[in-house]
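Hi everyone, sorry if this is the wrong subforum. Our group has a chain we'd like a structural model of before ordering constructs, and none of us has done structure prediction before. Sequence below.
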Amino acid sequence: MKTETSEQLKELVKEKYSQIAEQSKTTNEASCCGATGCGTVDYTVMADDYTQLTGYVSDADLGLGCGLPTEFAQIKEGDTVVDLGSGAGNDAFVARSIAGEKGKVIGIDFTDKMIEKAKQNAQKLNYSNVEFRQGDIENIPLAGNMADVVVSNCVLNLVPNKQQAFAETFRILKKGGHFSVSDIVLVGELPAGLQKSAEMYAGCVSGAIQKDEYLAIIKKAGFDLITIQKEKRITLPDEILKDYLSPDQVNEFRTGKTGIFSITVYAEKPESCCAPGCCN
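Answer:
Right subforum, don't worry. Here is the predicted structure as tokens:
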């Protein structure tokens, strides 16, 4: 399988999500986690349902994501919340409904067209305490120690340098601050051929790493109290599996421990520590 450089991967992500920004949620749900070209598959395998959450804005919901991090993020009124990979503003607007008028929400996204769409949504809602900035999660355009809470939804797996992304998350959080991040991880080695298929099926899977490795990166960044708040298996449709696996292999894959999972992870920046980013 061809291996792209970090910059090539970033350009692929930017191109893909620029296209998604101009599509409706219905179109995205009929494709590969927002990508294009998945035959007859007409449902979303990654996303959770936001429609019952307070602060939900339908125009900001593009059918992306793989969890509900804001539901687990323990946001309090008056908090400063940063949403990494904010897209059209879906999680940011839900976070705002919790942080309230005294709080502040800042969305960071790599794609200009997503930022433009999010700003339009915020303007239509007349929200003065939600802003969106273009930026790279490996080099977040924010000062250190400024956020009470960081959220992110199925984005960090797309970042080539995950260690740097979590180091940056650590840097921008206040001491005692925390994050809640939903992401895609792998458990065990996927059957031969299937991982490539999964990558085509969902761009969300293309950068996924082993769950244990993902959690180790968070710990190495300096975080404490690392907790998996929610975990769910991503069920690939038979349309994909049957092209690569025999009926017996499909059954083994469906019933075994190996697979693709969505996890929502919580972790805290210690009140006192000597790690980089603590005292900057």
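For your construct planning: The beta strands are 80-84, 104-109, 130-134, 147-153, 173-187, 224-233, 259-268. Confidence is low (pLDDT under 50) at residues 29-43.
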